[in-house]
Amino acid sequence: MENPHDLSEIRLNRFAYPASSEGGNKTLALVTVILFVTTVCAVFQIFFTQMRKRLRRIVLMKSIGAESRQIAQMLLWEFIYFCITALPVGTAIGLGGAYFTVFALEKIQERDIIYTVDPLILIFALLAGTAALFIGMMIPSIKAIGIPLTGRTARKKPLAPPKKDIQQNFFNVTLRGLSANKSRTLGNGALCLFMMLIMTLCIFIGFRFITPYRETVQRDNRPDYLLRLPYSVSDRQLPEYMEELESLGVCESIDVQRTGDDLLLEKSVESFLLDAAFGEDIKTALNSYGDDFSGYPVTLYAVSSESELFEKFSSAATYGTVDKENFEAGNEVIVFVPLYSDEKIKNKELTGYGWERVDSAGIDTTYYEEYKNVYKTDDGISAGERITLGASTRYYGGSGFTHKLETKKVKVSAVINYFPDEGVWPISGSDEGYQIVCSAKLAGKLLPNSMRTRSSNEVRALKVMYLSTGYGTTDFYITAKEGLSKYDIDTTLLVYSRSKYMDIEFYHESNSKLLQDGINNILLVGLLGLTAILLALMIFANTVSSDIEQERNKIGILQSLGVSNKQLIKRQLYIGLAVSGAAVFISNLLLWGGIAVFALLSDAVLGNLLWGYPVLLHIIACVVLAAIITILYILPMKSIQKYLPIENIKTRK
Length: 653
Known about the structure:
This protein is about 55% helix and about 15% strand. The protein is α+β, with helices and mostly antiparallel strands. The chain has a six-stranded mixed beta barrel with strand order 2-4-11-6-10-9. The protein has a two-stranded antiparallel sheet with strand order 7-8. Mean pLDDT is about 75; it is low at about 1-25.
C-alpha cells in the first residue's frame, strides 16, 4: 500500500456473526408453553375462588327456576366481556412493554435494534391468551353449573376426633386445622414450590446462556484485537512497536507472543493421546523433514522470563518447576499437554493428519481444571525428561529455495495439563495439541530467520512474497480502552496495521455477539420467569386470602377464647416460614439433583456446568421470594384483625 492513510478501500465486515435463530425459536416456544399453562392455572384458581363465593347466589337462582343452560349463558357472557376488555388493554400494554424493552436494550448494548411486530406471532399470542382464559374459566364454570340446591360442590368429610392424650392448646389447634384442610395446605405448598422452581430454573438457564461468552472470552482471556507481524521481532525492536501502539491511545493492555509454526517434536516421544486417535496407524500423525527427522507438529511460543506471562505459566505448572536462568538460556521449555477423552468415536473413517485427525477421531481436549479427575492425562511427556525439537528453515539461493534442518535437545522443566484459574489466549482456547513455551534465544536457534530486526521494506517483502516459513510471527493481543467508540478504535488500528504491513483480526465483534446473544436470551428467560412468578403470586395471594376469609368465624371464636392478634400473626408467620422453607429446600433439591443426573447421563462435567455460577444471586433470590411468600401469608390476617371477635363469628360463608 503506497499510502497507508488512504481508507477508501477499507471495508469492515459487520455481518460475520449472524444471529442463531434456532435457539431463539426454541426459547420462544418454551416461553409460550409455560405462559399458557401458568395463565390457565391463574385464571382457574381465581375464577374457582370467585365461584365458591357466588355459590349462594347460583343456588338461589336455581331455586327460583333458573336452568343450567341459562347459567351457562350468563357465564359465557362474562367470558365475552372479559375478552372485550382484556384484549385491547393487554395488547397495548404488551406492545408498549416490548417497545420499552427494545429501547432499553439499545441504550444498554449501544447498538441499533429494529422494533418489528410479526402479525402471525401476534395473532397466535392473542389466540393463545384467549384460549387460556377460556379454559381457565370453563372448568370452574362447569362445576358451578352442576351445583345441587344444597350449595355444596362436594360432601365434606367429618374431622376425626382428637386423641385424648393431646393437650388442646393454640399450637395443636393450628396443626389440627391444617390437617383438616390437607388439600388446601398442599395446594399452597405446591404453588410456592412452583414459584421457587421457576425462579431457580430461570437463574440457572440464564447462567448457561451466558456460558459461551464466559468460556470463550472471559475464561480464555480473548482480547479485542490481534495484530500480527509476518516475522518474530528481536528483543531490541519489540519495545519500538510497543511504544507506537501505546501512543495510539486506544489500547488498555497489550500482550505480545512471538510464535513459530512448522516445528516438530521428535517421534521417539510416546503419546497416549495420539495412540488413542491413530492406533497402529501412528505414522499418519507424523510430519517429516526427510529421512533424518520426523515427529509430531507443535506450536512454539517465545516469552521473556521477566514477563508476567512467564510467571503465569510457571505458577500454572501441573508437574515440575521452571529455572529462570536455564529457561532464558534456551536449555529448558514448558510443554502444554491437554487433558483428553477418547470414550466416544464420532467417525469410524478417520480423516486428516496431525491434530486434525485427533479431532476427527472424536477425542476432546481441554485445559480446564475441573476435567483433571474426569479426562485422561497424556503422560507421554513428563517433567525432567529431554526432548528433541526440529524446524526447517527455507532459504533463497541462486538455484532457488533450499531447506535447512535445525534441531535442539532441551529439558522439559514443567508440564501444564490445565490452568488452575483463567487461561492464556490463545493457548488455553487452542485445540492444536502440544504447545511449547520457550525463550527467544531458543526460538532464534530453531528458526534462524526469526528474532531479528528488520526494515519496513523487508517486512513488506515477507508480506507480499509469503516467505513466512522459518520467520515466525509476532502477535500483539490488544484489549481496547473502555468508553471509546469501537469504530474509532477499528479505524486507528487498521491504519496502523496497514502502515506496518500487519494482519489484523477483530475479536471484539464475535465477543460482542456472544455477549449480546447471552443477554437477549437472559432477558427473554427473565421475562418468562417473572411473568410466571407474578401470575403464581396472584393465584397464591388470592388463595390465602380466600382461606383466611373462610376461617373468619373460626378466627373469631379463637379471639373470643383469648387468642391474641399477636398469636394469630405469629401463626401465619410460622406457617409462611415453614412452607417457603420447604419450597426452597425441595426446589433446590430438584434443581441440583436434576443437574447432577443430567451430567451423569450426558457425560458432562459438573464442575464445568457450574463454573462461575452466581451463588450469591441464587441465595438472595431464594430469600427474597421466601420473604414475599411469608408476607402474603400474614397480610390477610391483618385485615381480619380489624373486626371485633363477634363480627368475625357472625360472618357466613
